[in-house]
Specification:
The chain is of the alpha/beta class and about 400 residues long. The chain has 13 helices and 18 strands. Helix content is about 35%, strand content about 25%. GO terms for molecular function: monooxygenase activity.
Length: about 400
């Protein structure tokens, strides 16, 4: 399929990555974003596995590397800030990857790499879709009505456009956690190490360096599914402060930052379980289709790999139906694999008592000890020779073969 007019909703990571490849294959692409401008906030994310492979194909690895967060590894600390274990980014046991970047920086790189060839429209969103046999009419909040050949939903877990098309068909798997994110002022206790601290009441604090002289903070905690739903910003602040007050470590520092910030994010940690990824001329990609949550550490992998595969299938298939089916056939097994968490996770990592925290801290000490690190070093280092998680087809070759066969 060529010379098709495609609308993408959502300008985070999956949307611009998809826009790049669709434009590369000759499609006319519009990206609509509800926000008035790029949403450049967010926490540290990693570019590894299939995401790194695709970023390499796009010629963007150097740009991503230049925007590195400066993080050198992770330290597990107790509430007295004593280091229990530390794993540099070269270690297979570290959550820090070779390519660590802030979410907003990656969004901006993808946007700058596509903005001259893709039409971006901010401050608008889809309110109605009428599908016909050979086209679809899309109505926007602004009042505009346009004709497109396909609509690709690249929004977040709470996608409004997905609900517009699929109704309540999509299920969510709540993992028993809420996470708060905010950016805080750097303090003398902060360094180039990420710091992870377990506190009683089922709380995990993580403070991570960035490349802007500030620190990115996350607070993840056990909670009932609807415990914080429907609250405004002021109510969320009060509820979060009440939850972490007196929990030790740097909780008082974080309380001061929560009180002062206007950029607090607090939401449930849930996976998206969509039985269908496409309906007619509409298809889902990224978190809207298969959010695995930050707990899995696969969000960037899924978003960028999904965008690459979907665009390639649209470029090489004879019909959009075949492209959507091939995309789902390739991506669904990988998405489902990414959503599988080890037994007991995340619950085991969030003990509620001081005793439970002390037991978990004991495990950190063991895994961070020299003997265990030495034994671990005897095996292969997964970061040096990563196992291929999903095969990414070479669509340039497939496209050439399609051209020959159609002559």
């Amino acid at each position: 399929m060529k010379n098709k007019k495609i609308l993408i909703t959502g300008a985070s990571i999956a949307g611009p990555a998809l826009a790049y490849w669709l434009n590369y294959y000759g499609f006319e692409v519009t990206v609509v974003e509800r926000a008035d401008e790029l949403r450049l906030g967010g926490q540290n994310i990693d570019v590894k596995g299939p995401a790194r492979e695709v970023i390499g194909k796009m010629g963007l690895e150097d740009a991503v590397r230049k925007a590195n967060t400066t993080e050198i590894g992770i330290q597990f600390v107790n509430t007295e800030n004593e280091v229990l274990a530390e794993f540099p980014k070269e270690s297979s046991m570290s959550m820090t990857q070779d390519l660590e970047i802030l979410r907003g920086d990656l969004v901006n790189i993808l946007y700058e790499h596509t903005r001259n060839n893709v039409h971006y429209r901010f401050g608008d969103y889809v309110t109605a879709v009428a599908q016909a046999e050979d086209e679809m009419k899309v109505t926007f909040k602004s009042g505009k009505t346009e004709i497109f050949d396909m609509l690709i939903v690249a929004e977040g877990i709470g996608s409004g456009t997905r609900k517009l098309i699929f109704g309540d068909e999509t299920r969510f798997k709540y993992l028993g956690l809420y996470t708060a994110y905010l950016t805080v002022k750097k303090q003398p206790t902060d360094s180039r190490w990420a710091r992870w601290c377990n506190a009683p009441r089922g709380i995990v604090y993580i403070l991570r360096p960035d490349n802007y002289g500030t620190t990115r903070a996350s607070i993840t905690m056990l909670a009932e599914e609807n415990e914080y739903r429907g609250m405004n910003l002021s109510q969320l602040k009060q509820a979060l402060i009440a939850r972490i007050k007196g929990s030790g470590w740097e909780s008082e520092r974080l309380i001061s930052e929560i009180e002062a910030t206007d950029d607090l994010y607090l939401d449930r940690v849930s996976q998206v379980k969509a039985s269908e990824w496409s309906k007619g001329r509409v298809v889902l990609v990224g978190d809207a289709a298969y959010c695995a949550t930050p707990i899995a550490g696969k969000g960037t992998d899924l978003a960028i790999a999904g965008a690459y595969i979907l665009a390639g299938e649209l470029a090489t298939a004879l019909t959009h139906q075949a492209a959507f089916a091939n995309y789902e056939k390739l991506m669904r097994p990988y998405a489902e694999k990414c959503q599988k968490l080890p037994p007991g996770i995340p619950g085991l990592v969030y003990p509620t008592s001081k005793f439970g925290v002390s037991v978990l801290n004991g495990f950190y000490r063991i895994f961070g000890s020299r003997p265990v690190k030495w034994l671990s070093s005897l095996g292969s280092n997964n970061k040096q020779q990563p196992k291929q998680e999903i095969e990414l087809p070479d669509y340039n070759q497939a496209d050439d073969a399609l051209k020959v066969n159609s002559m």
